């Protein structure tokens, strides 16, 4: 069997690692549940309500202990993407410099694009009342800035501070309208540039993406904190095999993931079109 020495673990880790670099939305999500992603699994996200802060009067008794509300929610791992393609000889391909890396890179890019588009859609459809704008024609930088400012007003009124990690995701056409309003990144921000950050606005990172949800009329521009959405994923299965009706080897893999808006008041959606 020519695929007997297929390096499944190395390939799986490579795809997972490289995919993280390409996931613009996932990078700014709450992903502490990573590693929980398995097909059909449900991840419980623990949460509690905020305790009541009361005024104490010296010399008086305090009230009995309250039981904070349980605000736990479940994140379903219900998205499954797979790949399945043939290779003339996997063992030989692995020994040929650059070939398997190229295959892994293209596989990774395809998986990342689908996963990012899903998270963007979850964000777009997860906004609550007051956290989404009306359909707006954005044709000037003034209109573009005004819409973003309205988003920040909403977030700030709901407890988001300038110390929270906030990210703005813009389609290319909107970014071109807003770019003159952004604070340019300095040379010491190489790490941000490597993560796809193009500039700052109101202390928030600005990223450009062509994976934003579009309902047929509007792009759904996202402004959110890093805690607004929980997401997790994992390469659930990866194996090499020999197709029954073929003389080539093949590789197939399954990527499982899920995402959920868990802090809707830390998310704002601008519905915009040219």
Compile the SSE list and pairings.
Layout: H1 8-22, E1 42-45, E2 73-76, E3 79-87, H2 90-95, H3 99-125, E4 136-137, H4 141-157, E5 166-170, H5 172-178, H6 190-194, E6 197-201, E7 204-208, E8 219-225, E9 229-241, E10 249-261, E11 267-273
Helix pairs in contact: 1-3
Describe this structure in words.
The strands form 3 sheets. This protein has a 6-stranded mixed sheet with strand order 4-11-8-5-7-6, with helices on both faces. It is globular and about 85 Å long. 33% of the residues are buried. It has a single domain, classed as phage-related protein like fold, CATH 3.90.1690. The chain is of the alpha+beta class and 274 residues long. The mean pLDDT is 82.
Residue runs with pLDDT of under 50 for 5 or more positions: none
Number of domains: 1
The strands making up the biggest β-sheet line up spatially as 4-11-8-5-7-6
Name the overall outline: globular
Quick gist of this model?
The protein is of the alpha+beta class. The protein has 6 helices and 11 strands. It has a single domain, classed as phage-related protein like fold (Alpha-Beta Complex), CATH 3.90.1690.
């Amino acid at each position: 069997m020519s695929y007997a020495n297929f390096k499944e673990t190395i390939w799986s880790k490579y795809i997972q690692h490289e995919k993280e670099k390409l996931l613009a939305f996932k990078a700014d999500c709450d992903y502490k549940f990573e590693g929980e992603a398995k097909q059909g699994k449900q991840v419980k996200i623990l949460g509690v309500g905020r305790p009541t802060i009361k005024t104490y009067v010296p010399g008086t008794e305090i009230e009995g202990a309250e039981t904070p509300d349980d605000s736990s929610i479940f994140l379903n791992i219900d998205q499954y993407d797979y790949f399945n393609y043939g290779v003339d000889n996997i063992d030989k391909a692995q020994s040929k410099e650059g070939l398997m890396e190229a295959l892994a890179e293209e596989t990774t890019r395809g998986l990342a694009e689908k996963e990012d588009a899903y998270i963007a859609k979850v964000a777009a459809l997860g906004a609550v009342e007051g956290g989404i704008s009306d359909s707006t024609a954005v044709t000037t930088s003034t209109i573009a800035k005004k819409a973003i400012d309205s988003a920040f007003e909403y977030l700030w009124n709901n407890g988001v501070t300038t110390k929270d990690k906030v990210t703005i995701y813009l389609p290319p056409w909107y970014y071109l309208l807003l770019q003159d309003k952004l604070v340019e990144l300095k040379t010491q921000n190489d790490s941000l540039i490597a993560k796809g950050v193009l500039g700052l606005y109101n202390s928030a990172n600005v990223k450009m993406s062509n994976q934003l949800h579009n309902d047929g009329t509007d792009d759904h521009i996202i402004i959110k904190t890093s805690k607004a959405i929980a997401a997790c994923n994992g390469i659930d299965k990866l194996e090499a095999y020999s197709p029954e009706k073929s003389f080539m080897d093949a590789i197939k893999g399954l990527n499982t993931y899920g995402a959920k808006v868990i802090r809707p008041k830390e998310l704002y959606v601008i519905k915009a079109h040219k």
